[in-house]
Specification:
By secondary structure, the chain is α/β, with parallel strands linked by helices. It contains nine helices and eleven strands. A hairpin with a 4-residue loop joins β2 and β3.
């Protein structure tokens, strides 16, 4: 079969429409009774009425069984194309975050490209977010969220393409406020976020073994240009200033593919007129989303602590 697009070791898209995913295919089941390593219970649910699957994480409640916790709506990365909530390293990260804060974490299973090109994934992200807000009410359909989730302390968090999703979900919230909730979340954490643009930014690395520009083309089915605000916030300051929160955390790594975009985000969002606090954290000597594949290294522990502290202060 003839290949249309290939990221070595990650995925292949064939002209026939077949997609072969090579990365993030090792999955792990949830732990409804709690993970012995951290006490975090997890289960797979369907968010009503959005009809979107998610994996839900509940921190150890033994000490304070009735306590309300912050809520994290988490969007996994994978270029909008690969990985899932049950992917081994995303399950591990979401559980670690739930334990570290502690927080109730909802990891969203959005539709992936190229079978479902953007904005399908963005639509799922926003619908899931709205469903989580509703589920946190006392009469909410999901008991873990209704009993333990505090939607007034909700953060949108995502890594790589998931960071892009968190950003765009917060933009949409300002345009489509939720009745009884408002148009702002407590915080948005963008972990090594996937932003891009036609022109290189600063000393941006462009010598990839694949065509990085084509990743976006495949993800959106060529519906949006490479400088659309979805992928390049700086192309529309009017959109960017609408980010629906008052606190943003941006993390990156020195060798991350998108490090220049992450470094430019704090100054850029301030320059466009957004009012709020921006925190920035960069890990030296590490690569893009290193914390997923190196869960036990010191740098991973340090970055997780930064993210957990940000959510805890929501």
């Amino acid at each position: 079969m003839e290949i249309e697009f290939d990221i070595p070791g990650c995925m292949r898209v064939f002209k026939s429409g077949l997609v072969e995913r090579l990365e993030g295919t090792e999955t792990i089941p949830p732990s409804p009774s709690g993970d012995p390593a951290n006490g975090v219970a997890s289960k797979d649910i369907v968010l009503d009425p959005a009809d979107i699957s998610a994996r839900l994480y509940l921190p150890d409640m033994a000490a304070e069984p009735g306590k309300k916790h912050p809520v994290v709506v988490f969007f996994h990365g994978g270029g909008f194309i690969t990985c899932s909530t049950s992917c081994q390293y995303y399950h591990r990260y979401a559980a670690s975050l739930a334990a570290a804060v502690p927080a109730v974490v909802v990891s969203v299973e959005y539709r992936r490209a190229p079978e479902h090109p953007l904005p399908a994934g963005y639509d799922d992200a926003f619908a899931a977010f709205k469903a989580v807000v509703a589920a946190c009410r006392p009469d909410g359909a999901e008991p873990w969220l209704a009993t333990h989730g505090d939607a007034s302390r909700l953060c949108l968090v995502g890594d790589s393409a998931g960071g892009n999703m968190a950003h765009n979900t917060a933009i949409r919230l300002r345009k489509e406020r939720i009745d009884g909730y408002g148009d702002k979340v407590s915080g948005v954490a963008l972990l090594h976020p996937y932003f891009w643009g036609t022109e290189p930014l600063g000393g941006e690395f462009r010598d990839f073994p694949f065509d990085m520009n084509r990743v976006w083309d495949v993800a959106c089915g060529d519906r949006f240009g490479r400088d659309h605000p979805y992928i390049n916030p700086a192309s529309s300051p009017e959109e960017w200033r609408q980010l629906g929160c008052g606190r943003v955390l941006v993390t990156t790594a020195e060798l991350c593919w998108f490090v220049e975009r992450a470094r430019a985000y704090p100054e850029g969002i301030k320059a466009c007129g957004w009012v709020g606090d921006v925190e920035f954290y960069e890990t030296k000597g590490e690569e893009h989303t290193y914390f997923l594949l190196k869960p036990h290294c010191d740098n991973t522990a340090k970055e997780l602590a930064v993210v957990a502290d940000f959510v805890r202060r929501s």
